[in-house]
Design brief:
Length: 63
């Protein structure tokens, strides 16, 4: 079971877009909530100046 199966549809779409494009911008309250949830899980980080811009967190592979 992958991480995307545990995330709600809006969150899964936002995370997929961030990983594909390197950035995602929330445009609706539902997207903002999804990004906040992903941020709490350590999957997205927020831009310091533009609160609607999010970046994927680069994780190092475990050895």
């Amino acid at each position: 079971m992958g991480i995307l199966t545990l995330i709600r549809p809006v969150g899964a779409r936002m995370l997929e877009t961030a990983e594909r494009d390197g950035v995602v911008v929330d445009r609706t309250p539902a997207e903002r909530q999804a990004c906040l949830r992903l941020n709490a899980k350590g999957l997205l980080r927020r831009d310091r100046r533009d609160a609607a811009t999010w970046y994927p967190v680069i994780r190092r592979a475990r050895r």
